[in-house]
């Protein structure tokens, strides 16, 4: 089994099932003891802001705030893409607790490390 799972989610409310799958996989992996790094890009960027995940709804899916809390509680890392943040006027001070902003170089470094599996949704 991979020591670390890096997940890049590009979808938000525009593709709710794909978005929910990414957060669900991240939360389940984190709860299973896998080190998780969840990258928010594109429309999922908005979920790095307080309260925005609570606005997301998908029938028969776990609420995003619960999934995010599960990821963070297990020590998972949530990162907002630098360019995506800039395009939306989001700054580090705006983020949910424990989230960060980082760019492609950091993503590539994480995804290419030994023992890492990377998924894109």
TrEMBL record:
InterPro entries noted in UniProt: DsrEFH-like, Sulphur_relay_DsrE/F-like
Top-rank lineage group of the source organism: Bacteria
UniProt cross-references to Pfam families, sorted A to Z: DsrE
Protein name (Swiss-Prot/TrEMBL): Sulfur reduction protein DsrE
